[in-house]
Amino acid sequence: MFRLLTLTLLAVTVHALHANNIDVANVNLGDRDLNNQTRIIRFDVSWENSWRVNSAPLNWDAGWVFVKYRIGNGSWHHASLTDTVSVPSGTTVDITSDNIGAFVYRSAAGVGDVLHTGIEVLWDYGADGVTDGDLVIVEVYAIEMVYVPEGAYYLGADGGDIAEFYRMDEWLPLSTGPYEVMSENSMRIGTLTGDLNFVGAIPSGTLTGYLGPQYPKGHQGFYCMKYEASQHQYVQFFNRQPAAAQVTLDLSAEGTLCANLSLFRNAFCWDGSNPAATSCPYVPVSFLSVDQMLAYLDWTGLRPMTELEYEKACRGTTYPIPREYAWGNASINTTAYAVSGHNNPNEGVANADDISETEGNGLYMGNRLRIDLEILNGPVRVGAFAASGTRFSRTSSGGSYYGILELSGNLSELVVTAGDAAGRSYTGLHGDGEVSPGGLADILNWPLSGVGYGSRGGSFLSARSALRVSSREFAAANFTAGETHGFRGVRTYPN
């Protein structure tokens, strides 16, 4: 979500817009330093169901805050945030080393709705090419994230999932035990003892090579979007692009018809007018090509996650359970869900309390939602399971070890594959907040056009086996746009 303000000679008029669960309010400008051409931006940020815990999993959720501006009627650009000026008690604000944005989160342990008020960050408007006489519009955005701490973890689960990772043992050739990731050092892929290995269908990848030290392996800490990217978030991004870029970023650029989009709950279909809109803002966005997903991640200052980071985000540091899902056991609900509040902010699962407490909630082919006895062909809104019913557990929410939602089911997750040379060349650089005039990401060593990517976690049209954490059936499948594919961004931390 974001808040908008207009600066004439750097004076303020505030306008408000509301998004899903995270809210930025009371945006104002503070003191200006004419010599250094900096200005304080002041704001509040709040969201629901926040946490910080000092026992396992030793993590917290956060708001990823970044700022956009434009001069007059010009193009939108990314604002450089260089420092904090004032941080309220109980709040931590981490400005990233590249000045792209800030993470805002609790300073101490706690659970519940959170409001961080009176945060002040410093905008280096001079470095961004803004002068004191310019008419400037500024927008403050925030995305809910979850911190995945640094530490060792395991790949694979010795459960026979398709093409799952395992540790090679040439003396025990039938052994497929989990592979422990103990650092970000180079990792050899092959058939010698100690190598990372995988077997299965051709899309699992090429079984020779290395993951270099810069390929993000999940050992280093990182932030991950709490939810899959929503239609609202993509439309916000789309509406801030120039006309030439919008042609590239429109879903019809992939040859998809509006009628086909609506069949699968994607209501963003651009008719050439501005601003674009969607009637399903809280539903995750689908039908995006890899290039369109990467453009959004570049613009937000995030990056695509690797398939190794995907497994870490799901199971954390616990020893793998064969055939487990993101909620930590091998049991999944098979009862058809009934949707309530269709297309509203509170869309949820009406029969959530009827589901066994031991069965995890993840949307797949076998339990797709129903409305008036008709099958709903599409994903449920982001975070719907966590907000449904009266139980608040990992299985009922479908949450991962770290509290990240919908990593199993709903829409499949875009990942940078470890299975081919294009994916292995990825070095984990973050987006810089700017996309090309034609609407493309332009970050070094981000594979483009689907090669180097795959999907993990399964979708509403998948068999339940595809939702398992270790399943790599489509991990190196040359990712293409479709109704089952979604994405979320990550960012290495500290950075």
How many β-strand runs?
27
Rg from alpha-carbon coordinates: 22 Å
> How much β-strand is present in the residues?
25-35%
Q: In the residues, how many domains can be counted?
A: 3
Helix content: 10-25%
Put simply, the count of helices is: 7
**Contiguous uncertain segments of 5+ residues:** 6-19
Q: Architecture of the largest domain, according to CATH?
A: Alpha-Beta Complex
CATH topology of the largest domain: paralog of FGE (formylglycine-generating enzyme)
Provide mean pLDDT, rounded: 91
Reading off the top of the CATH hierarchy, the class of the largest domain is best stated as: Alpha Beta
**Class of secondary structure makeup:** mainly beta
The biggest beta sheet is recorded as: 10 strands, antiparallel
Judging from the principal axes of the Cα atoms, what is the shape?
globular
Distance separating the two termini = 24 Å
Pfam family, one: FGE-sulfatase
Organism: Neolewinella litorea
Signal peptide: 1-19
Keywords: Signal
Textual characterization of the structure:
The protein has three domains: 144 residues, Sandwich (Immunoglobulin-like); 59 residues, no CATH class; 273 residues, paralog of FGE (formylglycine-generating enzyme) (Alpha-Beta Complex), CATH 3.90.1580. The chain contains seven helices and 27 strands. The strands form eight sheets. Strands 1, 2, 5, 6, 8, 9, 11, 18, 19 and 27 form a ten-stranded antiparallel sheet that branches. Strand 5 and strand 6 form a beta hairpin. It is globular. The two termini are 24 Å apart. About 3% of the residues have low confidence. This is Sulfatase-modifying factor enzyme-like domain-containing protein.
